[in-house]
Write a structure and sequence with these properties.
alpha/beta; binds sodium ion; binds guanosine-5'-monophosphate; 8-stranded mixed beta barrel; TIM Barrel; binds manganese (II) ion
């Protein structure tokens, strides 16, 4: 496939970029961290990760791509204040083959940052299969001090029982429940229930997809402590992070 060959070449040429979207502490207004989001500037216009991540997964390129993003994100984070974290998305395949723990350790060591600065975002599909291999890898990473976040929470198959099999540090409420929150009382009830679940289980809750002041006001009324979304900023290149940190609050 054309895209697969292009992607392989782009990776080899380090033409793949990692951009950063801030996560805000809603109590203080400070930026608590950034989510790393991979970007591929392409001659015929940017190709979205929604399009090329599946191609990378089918072709096996996801391992090289995943390692590249991890190393780049840790290296960029090494330039930020030490209380600002970096979150990296992982594909389920990165748990199936290769040595994810060694890859992560090596990225942290090369950047010289502590494991406490790194969050790894995984999706429900990964933990639903409950393989011992996956659970052991997650426990090892967590034991190192890395945070494990459940991304896109509430989509997918959402069997809550996996919250018992694995102690997540953070749940990210999928943006489908957050965007236009003020207009949808069902979404409000769902967000309230997830916040309550997080409180009871000792899991931090982040709301994704905050696009308007009204969404934000709703979240604050419900007691949500962290949020992310276009209202605050879209993902931007590493060179824009310093300005985002200065302009916050
Ligand atoms: O940034 P954007 O909304 O275009 O991302 C689209 C999708 O691609 C999201 O589901 C996001 O989680 C995923 N994605 C972005 N960057 C990465 C990455 O580095 N690795 C993986 N596995 N997925 C990513
Ligand atoms: O699956 P994941 O949550 O990792 O995907 C993150 C994606 O969501 C990124 O591609 C990012 O660009 C996108 N995103 C982040 N904030 C918003 C927002 O406020 N609105 C919308 N529509 N998309 C967002
Ligand atoms: Mn994510
Ligand atoms: Na998400």
């Amino acid at each position: 496939r054309r895209l697969e060959l292009d992607l392989r070449a782009a990776l080899a040429a380090e033409a793949i970029e990692v951009h950063y979207q801030p996560l805000l502490n809603l109590r203080t207004g400070a930026i608590s961290g950034f989510e790393a989001l991979v970007r591929w500037p392409h001659a015929e216009g940017d190709v979205s990760p929604g399009e090329f991540i599946p191609i990378a997964e089918e072709s096996g390129l996801i391992y090289a791509l995943g390692t590249y993003v991890l190393r780049r994100a840790c290296r960029d984070a090494s330039q930020w204040p030490s209380d600002v974290k970096v979150a990296v998305n992982l594909s389920a395949l990165q748990f199936r083959h290769g040595d994810l723990v060694a890859t992560v350790q090596s990225a942290l060591a090369a950047a010289g940052i502590s494991p406490q600065r790194l969050d790894l975002e995984i999706t429900e599909a990964l933990v639903l299969d409950r393989s011992e291999r996956v659970l052991n890898t997650l426990r090892t990473l967590r034991g190192m001090g890395i945070g494990i976040s459940m991304d896109d929470f509430g989509t997918g198959y959402s069997s809550l029982s996996y919250l018992r099999s694995f102690p997540f540090d953070k749940i990210k409420i999928d943006r489908s429940f957050v965007t236009n929150l003020n207009e949808n009382t069902d979404s409000q009830a769902i967000v309230r229930a997830i916040l309550s679940l997080g409180n009871s289980l000792g899991i931090a809750i982040t709301a994704e997809g905050v696009e308007t002041e009204l969404d934000l006001a709703c979240l604050q009324a419900e007691g949500c402590l962290e949020a992310q979304g276009f209202l605050f900023a879209k993902a931007q290149p590493a060179s824009a992070v310093a300005a985002m940190l200065l302009g916050e609050g």
